[in-house]
Amino acid sequence: MREGFSTGTCAAAVATAGVQMLITGQPLAAVSVFLPQGQEAVFTLEQADFIPEGVRCCVLKDGGDDPDVTHETPICALVRWAEGPERVRIRGGQGVGRVTKAGLKVPVGEAAINPVPRQMIRENVQRILPAGKSVEITISAPYGEELAKKTLNPKLGIVGGISILGTTGRVRPMSNEAFKESLIPQLSVARAAGFKSICLVPGGSGERAVRKLFNVPEDAICQMSNWLGFMLSQAVDLGFEAVIVAGHIGKIIKVAGGIFDTHSKVADARLEIMAAYAGAVGATPEVIREILSQGTTEAALEIVKQNGLEALYAPLAQQAAKRAEGYVQGALKVGIVFFDLSGNLIALDQNANEIGRWSGWWGS
């Protein structure tokens, strides 16, 4: 599959093009930049104009075959000569977010242009910048404010637009590792806010259920997607003491079976686990077979209800918590909360109750 380029590389390209046009006074059709590992990349410019304020250059972000929300969005730079000792001054413009919460790689109050993209911009510009000259570069993303709503930026306290990101300069198609890395800043923000306990949820619906039923602060709720094991390990590394894992029972039930990547393509034992625990609380073979024959967890929940087998939920939650603590070798206290599809509480184990109480998230 075809690789693409990060927003950081695009920002470096338009910044370099703008500086080159300032120096030569000539329009430019394409520009080359060097990536952090030394490879050269060539970009065709969508816009390269002299304007009263300086030079404005844009490229269309090419994410390759990666389903990135910023694919084909314009990344632009306004470049002008500047005064002062700082040779390359970098600012954020329209559609580039601004950091409002501590714990991220960029200080509070700064434009959300990460350290590696800043370094790429400086190094590429300084290659061609004449001695004694300084420039001011304002990076913008005209559609960034709307696109940011489809990212984790609002949750991370990055307001007003997208982030300018990238560590290698390239985007690898549908990279699980890149997705995992994008989840970590939530933990950093929670830690910087002083939380010792956090609540991990698979996604937006889990977060809404938690906030509806409990008094968990927004910054203490972190989305994990399918990577519970990865996020538990990161929580240990960042020094958290306790984690509540909350979400739809069809996903979180897998943890009771020792499954820590909950994507259905990796492992899907929802009904088998539920049927086993139903049998443990007295389900007949006929009911067990009926549970196993269902297509959805919600349908299986209805069978559990019809047969009065709700007692299976408590030991199921307890086993999931035990498995999760075992995964991190006891480095975290882990509690489990199950919801149904409507966000109604099905069960929580003793650990979750204790963590919630001492964290002040719910009453006794």
Helix and strand layout, with pairings?
Blueprint (H helix, E strand, L loop, with lengths): L3 E2 L1 H18 L5 E5 L5 E5 L2 E5 L2 E7 L13 E9 L5 E5 L5 E2 L15 H14 L5 E7 L3 H4 L5 H4 L1 E2 L10 E2 L4 H17 L4 E5 L2 H10 L7 E3 L4 H10 L4 E7 H4 L17 H11 L4 H8 L4 H10 L6 H15 L5 E7 L5 E4 L1 H9 L6
Parallel strand pairs: 7-9, 12-13, 12-14, 14-15
Antiparallel strand pairs: 1-11, 2-3, 4-5, 5-6, 6-9, 8-10, 15-16
Helix pairs in contact: 1-2, 5-7, 9-10, 10-11
Distance between the termini: 53 Å
**SSE pattern:** EHEEEEEEEHEHHEEHEHEHEHHHHHEEH
Structural class: alpha/beta
**Strand order in the largest sheet:** 4-5-6-9-7
Rg (CA only): 25 Å
- State mean pLDDT (0 to 100 scale): 94
Instruction: Please provide the count of β strands.
Output: 16
Question: How many individual domains?
Answer: 2
Uncertain stretches:
none
Percent of sequence in beta strands: 15-25%
Q: What percent of residues adopt helix (DSSP H or I)? A: 25-40%
Q: If helices are DSSP runs of H or I spanning 4 or more residues, what is the number of helices?
A: 13
Q: Biggest sheet: strands, sense, closure? A: 5 strands, mixed
Choose one word for the global shape.
Answer: elongated
Structure description:
- Helices cover about 35% and strands about 20% of the residues.
- With about 375 residues, the chain is of the alpha/beta class.
- The protein has a five-stranded mixed beta sheet with strand order 4-5-6-9-7, covered by helices on one side. Strands 13-12-14-15-16 form a five-stranded mixed beta sheet, with helices on both faces. It has a two-stranded antiparallel sheet with strand order 1-11.
- The mean pLDDT is about 95.
- Helix 9 (about 270-280) runs antiparallel to helix 10.
- It has 13 helices and 16 strands.
- It starts with a strand and ends in a 6-residue tail after the last helix.
- It has two domains: about 5-170, 2-Layer Sandwich (CbiD-like); about 175-360, no CATH class.
- The chain is elongated, with a radius of gyration of 25 Å.
